Amino acid sequence: MNIISALLRALFSGVARLPTVLRWTASAIASVLGRRIPQLLWVRRRIALSDAASITLEEARLCRSILGDAAERLGPEKSPDAVLDYIATYIAEHSNIWGKQQSSTQIELIGPMQSKKGTFSDAGSMLGFRNHTVFTDLQIDGADLQRVLREMREEPKTEPRT
């Protein structure tokens, strides 16, 4: 474990009881310093779907999952945002996500069946539907993300590239 993760864990060990601003601060510190958000900070809270997509892509690359290979090769575009959109689609198909409609301030549940009808954009931070409904500030529960990562690790692996 690196020193940054240890410091963040010590500073924000009671993160579930802290206000949202402080939880955001922990995520911001981790991203500025180029580190993943420590898993301890995921407990009983939601993290941004775009962050979850980045974490899932990193994990897919590490464990040589078919998901990581498919996201980089089979997506309609090869841009980094398009790859994260592909991963966000995978996450949304396997768990519940939350978001708020563009003109609203209330966060709503978006189930897997509903999210299949939409299109992700902006690296998994927006979900748009044909009826012009747009959800922003997309989030996933930390426990759901851990389950998605565990399922992904158990899937078939790709052959090493030579």
Short description:
The protein is of the alpha+beta class. It is built from 7 helices and 6 strands, in the order ααβαααββαβββα.
C-alpha geometry: globular
* CA-CA gap between termini: 30 Å
Category by helix and strand content: alpha+beta
Order of helices and strands: HHEHHHEEHEEEH
* Number of self-contained structural domains: 2
State the helix count: 7
C-alpha Rg (nearest Å):
16 Å
Regions with little confidence, pLDDT below 50 for 5+ residues: none
The tally of beta strands, per DSSP, is: 6
Share of residues in helices: 40-55%
Task: Estimate the mean pLDDT confidence.
Answer: 78
Give the DSSP E fraction (strand runs of 2 or more residues): 15-25%
How is the main sheet built? 6 strands, antiparallel
Structural description of this entry:
The chain has 162 residues and is α+β, with helices and mostly antiparallel strands. It has two domains: 1-44, no CATH class; 45-162, no CATH class. Helices cover 47% and strands 15% of the residues. It has seven helices and six strands. Strands 1, 2, 3, 4, 5 and 6 form a six-stranded antiparallel beta sheet that branches. Helix 3 crosses helix 5 (80-94). The protein is globular and about 45 Å long. The mean pLDDT is 78.
